[in-house]
Amino acid sequence: MGGTWPCDFAEVEHEVYCIAHFIAGGTIGTVLPGPISAACTGLVSHAVLDAVPHSEYTNHWWGALDVIATCALALAVLAAGADVRAIAGGLGGALPDLEVAAAYLFPRAFRPHGRLRLLFPSHSGLVRHRRLAFPWGVFTQAAVIFALGALVSLWGR
Fold this sequence. Notes:
By secondary structure, the protein is mainly α. It has one domain. The N and C termini lie far apart (46 Å).
């Protein structure tokens, strides 16, 4: 496990990789009428993706790498001149993972009574999901994103 600094990964309901949420939210955003609907739908897609069985981080370094990769992708998408709906959907999809990152960086703020408190339902444990061992859980994330891309491609015709 990742140890106890800044908090123990065993006590957090981990989520799908942030970059997968950004890609899924951005993909969905491309077929929606505006950036607000894209961001809101991206946020909803976060909970849906977290319900799919998946692999999770085993230490904070993987989480940091995921966030860095997501930021790099977001900057690349912006630089490429992507539609604002895709960017809004991607940011909406990735936004809930900021809560998890903040809990690792500022653990005392998320432990009002000595116990970790997160708000997003799939992060707090309110909505549970099955975990798959690496690499199978990564494959499920990729499969969901490819299927989503195919559906959006068909919808956009």
